[in-house]
Amino acid sequence: AEKVHTGTGTGQYVGTVPLGTTLSGSTYQLTDPDRAGHKTYDLNQGTSGTGTLFTDDNDVWGNGLPSNRQTAGVDVAFGAAATWDYYKEVYGRNGIRNDGVAAYSRAHYGSSYVNAFWQDSCFCMTYGDGSGNTHPLTALDVAAHEMSHGVTAATANLTYSGESGGLNEATSDIFAAAVEFYENLPADPGDYLVGEKIDINGNGTPLRYMDKPSKDGSSRDSWSSTLGSVDVHYSSGPANHFFYLLSEGSGAKTINGVSYDSPTYDGQAVTGIGITNAAAIWYRALTTYMTSSTNYAGARTATLSAAADLFGAYSPTYLAVADAWAAINVGS
Ligand code: ASN
Ligand code: ZN
C-alpha cells in the first residue's frame, strides 16, 4: 500500500523499503508517524527495558547485513507497519486493540536468542538475533505472527494451552501468511510457510508448513482426541492446514515458486476460496464468535457462522468451509 514516508531502509529480509520516520532536531528517529507513533528500539543485546530508540542522521537505514545494527530495526519496523496497515486497510481495525494506540518493537534481544515474542504486559514485541547473531527472527511473517498475538489477546483471547492454544498459534500463523501475501514484497513474496527467510535450521527449511504441517517433524496435520496435549506450536497444525486448504484447495499447486501438496483426511476434496476470503472468515470468527475456551469443534462453528454472515448460509463459500474442516477430521 502506498503511504507517505520519509525514510528508506534496507533490511536483511524485506529488501529496500520505505519507512515511517520522525525528524527530531537534526536526527531521524524510527518512530512511525503514519502508524500512531510506533517506535522501534535497539536493546543492544540487553533483555529488559527499551534500550535506545533507533536513530539516524540521513534517514537511510540499515544495509541488509546483520552486522549493521539498523538492519534488524528496518525489518521489524517494516513488519509492524505492514501488519498495522493490513488490519486497518482490510478490516478497518485501528491498531491491535482497535483503539488507535501503537505497540512498540524491540530488536537485538539477548545474545544468539533464537525466538521472538509478544507480551501483553508491555504491549510490545521483541526479537532475538538468532543463531550466531546472524539469523535474526525479524522476518515479515514473524512480525505479523507476534503482532497478531496482540490482536488475539484483545479479541477472542484464546487460552494459550490445549486446543484453544493451538488455535491461538494458528491465528498468528494465518495472519502472518495473509500479511505476507498482502505485501507481496519482491524480496519476500507470499507463501504458506512460516519463517522461511530466517533459515533457522541452517538447511533452508522454514519453521512451519501450513499445507502439510507434519513436514516439520512435530506438527499434526489433522484433529484427533490427543491434540490438546501437544505443544501449541504443533496443535496449531490442523488449523493451519484447514486455512491452507480453504484458501487454495486440495491437490498439488505452485504459488510464487513454492510447491505445495496438501493431503486431506479421508481424501476429502476442498475447493479453494482464496486467501483474502479465507482470512476474512477467520478474522470475523476470531473477533465475533470465538472465546477464550474455543476448541477445534468451536472454531468450526465460529467460522461457519462467520461465513454465513459474509457470504450466506449454504453458499458455495460456506460449504467450502465445512469441507475444509472435514478435510482435517473436524465435524459434520
Ligand atoms: N515465538 C513464539 C510465538 O510467538 C514465542 C512463544 O512461544 N510464545 O509463539
Ligand atoms: Zn506464536
UniProtKB/TrEMBL annotation:
Coiled-coil ranges per UniProt: none
Residue positions of the active site: E146, H233
Organism superkingdom: Bacteria
Protein family membership: Belongs to the peptidase M4 family.
Protein's name in the database: Peptidase M4
